[in-house]
Design goal:
The protein is α/β, with parallel strands linked by helices. About 65% of the residues lie in helices and about 10% in strands. The N and C termini lie far apart (about 70 Å). Bound molecules: adenosine-5'-triphosphate. Adenosine-5'-triphosphate binds next to helix 10. Pfam families: ABC_membrane, ABC_tran.
């Protein structure tokens, strides 16, 4: 329940609309309470005194107040939907914006399917309560209390005796509320898992098919689907047990009232008009109680869904611009110093585990081309990730032009480092928009210049709509090498003082790779460039080569110096030389 109270923060800007909802609700309830009185008067004053004019006036009044009630419920319905939609709009926006700011550390652990289900189903469940369930509960409460009040005023004995089954009804509701909550909690969690299975399957469909695992994947989905089905059936069973019983107790209220009312009328202790009014009023007692079951359902769904949504919003943004605003990153020229840098991932214990990077000391001058070599898993990508603050160092300092990376304004810092990552991601948009992703305002000339440097311009020209050609999700429609070259053009276009090529030409054939490197020589001029590569051909232009082994720098020097030393570089050279000779 506390979580729902936290959500009231989103209701604050909606105070005016909520006031409209409340006033309309009140108006509707008052009309519902007055209407039976008019009916009573038709019997007790109109029919009893044979006053036709009074009967007509009262009937017209009944029609009139029903018209007013309809208008009030129209305004109330529209306003309450607007409140719900506004809240959900803000919440969804806040959640999405927060997701943009969360660090890599968060995404290392998060499951995409779970996040998607929180953005959709869970938020919808919260909306259903805020925009509908809560208002209905309030309406029910007002109607219930008001009706009982009027009935007590008109004939307290009949009222009290008729209501004798209500404690039983409340007991059934209380038990239902206790049990159905945990079922809804499981259902929301299972929906998250189901979405995860679906999302992973679609993203990995090529692997599924390549390994002919369709049947197993079907089985995996079926298991989770069945699980969800069973929990839903358990919930339905709870409803099936509780709702008819509630209906029965509600019906008893009505029957007792009819019987007792008839007896009281016969005994002259109750007028016929009051009896007729009671028949009307009794529904003001029964419907709020009967509807309470559904309202509990809506509320419990929201109670279970809200923490899932708030958990994402509460996840701390670990990497951000310093509070005081950070240093302007435009001053970054490209001098980089790693000062005794160590790095651990989130799942590692800094005091016990050996870091992914340990005591890295490295001084890179502006404009230098540094090649980073090392066996797979030696920490090359991690070294690079620290510069853009995808992760923060666990020990030591990383300085860009003499200033700790943590002191820079974050967006500016990242814009000054052009990265071509190992795994390229392209959006389902035109090739032009993909290249201009970091600089949407770039001119066509600039985009073509970058594409030429990345050796993709000629290919784009051959496509049906040139730069406007739409490429599918994740760049489907392009080969691995073409995708890499689009990503390369994207980084070049940013004109960054620091360029990072993480296996950026690994998917390109050797001839194209060599041509790209020739072109890149001009692009790299004046920029500090890191090239991570396995092929020696890609690193031959480097001013300095660094060899990493298990997170530590084990060799450092020029191509010639390292060739003359025993070690990883020489072995790699000999292996690739022998392979080339075969
Ligand atoms: N998100 C992560 N969480 C925990 N450990 C990770 C994570 N990413 C990488 N590692 C581990 O950190 C080590 C260094 O990884 P890194 O990606 O930096 O290596 P690399 O030298 O770039 O490898 P490759 O040449 O295969 O790309 C590896 O042992 C890897 O298992």
């Amino acid at each position: 329940m506390k979580v729902l109270l936290r959500l009231t923060k989103y209701l604050r800007p909606e105070v005016k609309l909520m006031a409209v909802v409340f006033v309309m609700l009140l108006l509707g309830t008052i009309i519902d309470l007055i209407a039976p009185i008019l009916l009573k008067e038709i019997f007790d004053s109109g029919i009893a005194n044979k006053d036709i004019a009074l009967i007509l006036a009262l009937t017209l009044s009944l029609i009139g107040i029903q018209v007013i009630k309809s208008i009030a419920s129209f305004i109330q319905g529209r306003s309450q939907e607007l409140v719900g939609q506004n809240v959900i709009f803000t919440l969804r926006k806040e959640l999405y914006n927060h997701l943009q700011r969360l660090s890599f550390r968060y995404y290392d652990k998060a499951q995409t399917g779970q996040l998607m289900s929180r953005m959709t189903g869970d938020i919808e469940a919260v909306k259903n309560f805020i925009g509908f369930g809560a208002v209905l509960m309030l309406l029910g409460l007002l109607t219930f209390i008001g009706t009982i009040g009027f009935m007590l005023y008109l004939q307290w004995k009949v009222t009290l005796i008729s209501m004798s089954t209500i404690p039983l009804l409340l007991f059934v509701l209380w038990r239902f509320n206790n049990k159905v909550g945990s079922a809804w909690g499981q259902i929301r969690e299972q929906m998250g898992r189901l979405t995860t299975t679906l999302q992973e399957n679609i993203s990995g469909i090529r692997v599924v098919k390549a390994f002919a695992r369709e049947r197993e994947e079907e089985g995996k989905f079926r298991d989770r689907n069945e699980h969800n089905f069973e929990t839903n059936m358990q919930r339905a069973k709870l409803e099936a047990n509780a709702f008819p019983l509630m209906g029965f107790y509600g019906g008893l209220v009505f029957l007792i009232m009819i019987w007792l009312g008839a007896v009281f009328v016969a005994r002259g202790e109750m007028t016929l008009g009051t009896f007729m009014a009671f028949q009307w009023y009794v529904w003001g007692v029964i419907w709020p109680l009967n509807m309470l079951g559904w309202q509990i359902n809506i509320m419990q769904q929201a109670i279970k869904a809200a923490p899932r949504v708030l958990e994402v919003i509460d996840a701390s943004i670990e990497i951000a611009t310093p509070d005081q605003g950070g240093t302007d990153a435009r001053r970054i020229g490209g001098n980089i110093v790693f000062e005794d840098v160590s790095f651990h991932f989130a799942d590692q214990d800094v005091s016990k585990d050996k870091g992914v990077l340990q005591h890295i000391n490295l001084d890179v001058r502006q404009g230098e081309i540094i090649a980073v070599l090392g066996a797979t898993g030696s920490g090359k990508s991690s070294l690079i990730a620290l510069m853009s603050r995808f992760y923060d160092v666990s020990g030591g300092r990383l300085l860009l032009d003499g200033i700790d990376v943590r002191d820079y304004e974050l967006d500016g810092l990242r814009q000054r480092i052009g990265i071509v990552p190992q795994e390229t991601f392209l959006f389902s948009a035109s090739i032009r928009d993909n290249i201009a992703y970091g600089m949407p305002e770039a001119s066509q000339e600039a985009i073509e210049w970058a594409a030429r440097k990345a050796h993709i311009h000629a290919f784009i020209e051959t496509m049906p709509h040139g730069y406007e050609t739409l490429i599918g999700e994740r760049g489907v429609g392009l080969s691995g090498g073409q995708r890499q070259r689009v990503a390369l053009a994207r980084a070049i276009l940013m004109d960054p003082p620091i360029l990072v090529l993480d296996e950026a030409t690994a998917s390109v054939d050797t001839a194209t790779e060599s041509a790209i490197h020739e072109e890149l020589l001009e692009v790299m001029k004046g920029r500090t460039t890191f090239i991570i590569a396995q092929r020696l051909s890609s690193v031959k232009r480097a001013d300095r080569i660094i060899v990493l082994d298990k997170g530590a720098i084990v060799q450092q020097g020029t191509h010639q110096e390292l060739f003359e030393e025993e070690g990883f570089f020489r072995k790699l050279f000999e292996m690739q030389d022998a392979a080339a000779a075969r």
